[in-house]
Write a structure and sequence with these properties.
It is a single chain. Helix content is about 10%, strand content about 40%. The protein is mainly beta and about 220 residues long. The longest helix has 11 residues.
């Protein structure tokens, strides 16, 4: 089962840069940290914040091994949109792109850099991505991905301490009307307000992932 968690965790190996374009050097330093991760297992909790969906928190375990698809072990059904939330950060780097510096600033003593990744290939599934990098801690803090068909996604990463490269929480905000949510996969304990679902209001939604008890694969 694929999960929107692949937004970040498959990005552990997302820099397959077979290209000769100018890439931000701080982004490449973050790549080196992610490349050093070989495998891990982590427990997780998943919550959905969509105005017409009422769903209790789901739990499961994710198993990651470098070079292989991430595996989810769970007794619950989980929200797995057919297209959109399975858009992985690694897909940003499958085709040639350039990076453009937008701004730099200091926040809470850390050096922050905001860059845009702009594809120069018609094969790319996104039009532009904005990456907020914490240069001092060498990690990604926030990403905004604008896709060609499924709207925009904002990804916020929260880390447990100053040295962590893997997050303890991921929040993904999205435009509900731009994705297809397979309600039949949400489980029998989920309630859907169909009146709200059919309303013409622009709907915003979010998925919150709590990640805890990281451990190395045996």
């Amino acid at each position: 089962m694929r999960l929107c968690l692949t937004f970040f965790f498959l990005s552990v190996s997302f820099f397959s840069l077979a290209q000769q374009t100018a890439i931000d050097q701080d982004l490449l330093l973050i790549k080196e940290r992610l490349d050093s991760i070989v495998d891990f297992t982590v427990d997780m909790g998943l919550e959905v914040d969509v105005n017409f969906i009422s769903m209790p928190k789901k739990t499961g375990t994710l198993i990651y091994r470098k070079g292989a698809p991430a595996k989810i072990s769970t007794d619950d059904f989980m929200l797995v949109p057919k297209r959109g939330l399975d858009f992985k950060l690694e897909q940003l780097f499958e085709n040639p792109f350039i990076t453009v510096l937008r701004k730099t600033y200091i926040k809470e003593g850390d050096s922050i850099k905001v860059i845009n990744a702009i594809p120069n290939s018609d094969k790319a599934d996104f039009s532009i991505a904005e990456l907020t990098l914490n240069i001092s801690k060498r990690r990604i803090q926030q990403t905004k991905i604008s896709t060609l068909r499924d709207g925009s996604y904002d990804i916020f990463l929260k880390y447990p301490d100053d040295t962590a490269i893997l997050p303890e929480q991921i929040k993904i905000q999205f435009e509900v009307e731009r994705i297809r949510i397979p309600l039949s996969f949400l489980g029998q304990d989920v309630k859907v307000n169909h009146k709200l679902k059919r309303s013409d209001d622009i709907k915003k939604g979010a998925i919150l992932l709590d990640l805890y008890n990281y451990r190395k694969q045996p």
